Amino acid sequence: MASLTAGNRRPVRLADIAKAAGVSHGTASNVFSRPEIVREEVRERVRAAAEAMGYGGPDPKGRLLRAGKVNAIGVATAEPLSYFFEDPFARVMMAGISRACDATGAGISLVSAANNEQLAWNIQSALVDGFIVFCIEGGSRLVELARERRLPFVALDLDSEDGSVAAIGVDNIAGAGRAARHLTDLGHRRFAVLALPFADGRTGLVSAEQIRVAAYAGTRDRLTGYLQELSRVGVEASKVPVYETANDVASTKAGLETIFAADAPPTAILAMSDRMALVALEWLNARGLNVPNDVSVVGFDGVPEAAVSEPPLTTIAQPIAEMGRLAVKAILESDGPVSRHQLAVELIVRASSAPPRG
Amino acid sequence: MASLTAGNRRPVRLADIAKAAGVSHGTASNVFSRPEIVREEVRERVRAAAEAMGYGGPDPKGRLLRAGKVNAIGVATAEPLSYFFEDPFARVMMAGISRACDATGAGISLVSAANNEQLAWNIQSALVDGFIVFCIEGGSRLVELARERRLPFVALDLDSEDGSVAAIGVDNIAGAGRAARHLTDLGHRRFAVLALPFADGRTGLVSAEQIRVAAYAGTRDRLTGYLQELSRVGVEASKVPVYETANDVASTKAGLETIFAADAPPTAILAMSDRMALVALEWLNARGLNVPNDVSVVGFDGVPEAAVSEPPLTTIAQPIAEMGRLAVKAILESDGPVSRHQLAVELIVRASSAPPRG
DNA sequence: AGCAAAATTTGAATCGATCCAACGAAAGTG
DNA sequence: CACTTTCGTTGGATCGATTCAAATTTTGCT
Predict the structure, then answer these.
(1) B233 near B177, Cβ under 8 Å?
(2) What is the count of structural domains for chain A?
(3) Between chains, do B112 and A125 touch, taking CB under 8 Å as contact?
(4) DSSP 8-state assignment for residue A130
(5) Domain of A34, in residue numbers
(6) B316-358 pLDDT tens trace
(7) In B, residues 90-149, which contact A (CB 8 Å cutoff)?
């Protein structure tokens, strides 16, 4: 019953069963791909031969070459693969992408790598019909790599103004402006900014010069949004400490230490990501500072965790799932011109912001 | 500068640039795959031709056929794709799988589908070197499909004793036993069980007969573990209501309604998943019953959410990430005999369990 | 220069299927 | 019965690369 399939390791090809069944490979192929056009008697004979020889159906590797389409989209990032399942932002985005793929029947290939060299190879050899590129850090390199494949691709959240690449992002300036406006409306006048990277590999307080030459336009735009709005109420940019982090726990805490070591510590913190904002909530609480009474905190992104933090976080919500959906659509319908979308964001007021004391 | 690559849609093949550069395909191929063995002058000529014609490097579709290896493993489930990013258990498992893949440089392909027909096709045509199959519901069909591909595959958490399929799971009997023992040690004598499905498509209190013919061995094993341990302290199996749910919010609540409608409601609940246990915590709280003082709850799985629930959940932790790691290892090193692993679980005592009142 | 050894390049074979024009046989038609 | 359709089958071409043994060119040495 168990037949000989166990130890047998020589792969069986369609041609083998065609010969065994005494038909041409063309007919054998039809038995699997369009069984209705093959005479029943022949069809059964071929199927029997396949069964007997332990043939598992046409190998997709072969079919792929003819068909051309893989029917899968690649999602690439310069982070390790586990990023997709552990980062809150990535997870929401992937959920959006998933739903769009489910709807169209496309599969998802996760492309990523520990080191940079491996990344290049992985992108070059990914079997996909197109790429969605997560541009967190090292976005430009990733985009370059994807572009070289000459497959349709969209950059998510791309920090670049290069109009020749399709990109989906949010209006960072307006979003940051909304956040700052919310705080100035509450009466705050002393601020500090927890910033995403302006360039790779450094953290710490940033100077005006460093901001001007920022590699990441997204970070710069958010800062611009903040500062524009603050200047409306007479808060000078030079008076607002901007601490650049690596968007991780350690550098965010270091930033908070620095910020609160000042003579006149801020009454409000503008964080460029919910991740940093959540770290701030924890840090402030451990430090005995009450949020929102001593310090208000406003995040950016709108990840689900922000709704259940202690206290719940006021933040700028990106339409993350919608961005994922649009990205898939852009790949699959990859028509003529490169499509660029800039989506609106929304201020969600929760309990982490309140008027300043006194 | 921008060259003619924009509107140009005719694909350029390696053979085209070989001809353009005046070399054979063999040499052209070497320029990309082993540039060091090609004379510099020739190499540059070929590269120039490639550049001029807008060639994006060797197409992996072609390479694949020769190479045989895709360098990616497929992760399959009968749920929609978003399951991978939304279900807590799946996320932890995927994180473990990701890390193992990162370490070995393999990619991940997510295979799934809305409907059953699509699923079959997706598995048949997935470009992967092996499958990791998530057996939640409909596991046996999935295993059957994967087996037909004649690729290495492992079943995670498989509810089946079929020794011919590689599987990685936990010791359900021992784990359930630990959970029950914890509660009996605390002095509990009145129990109720929230059970995972014994078979597809039904929910409600289950009879001894239904348990005996259970389709899912994992569910049966957990129940066996519970009841064995309870019988040690003289609690008869027939006195313990066992409510079969679909592991979702609605059916779990229905189960709780039924269970607590009884004359002598339980002082302790044994839930076969953290998901159900977390629903129970919420339901009990809404009902005005204090956990753990009025009712103790013990879950099963050890998802991260269980650590931060209110109150934190006592549970049986599966080594989820370790299972993922082992699964990848089993696929990539797919050596001789089918490997079956049964891992140990661990009781994690948190605040949802305490001695009964009085 | 003469010859063996080393370095490059060539081109046919292969990977595993699908597609399609052409062909043979069976069925239908006048 | 000759003649068109219809139905099924055949086998060569193709998808886009890699591989490797053999052919060719270079280099090294006396």
Answers:
(1) no
(2) 3
(3) no
(4) -
(5) 3-66
(6) 999 998 999 999 999 988 766 678 899 999 999 999 999 999 7
(7) 91-92, 94-95, 98-99, 101-103, 105, 107-114, 118, 122, 124-127, 148-149
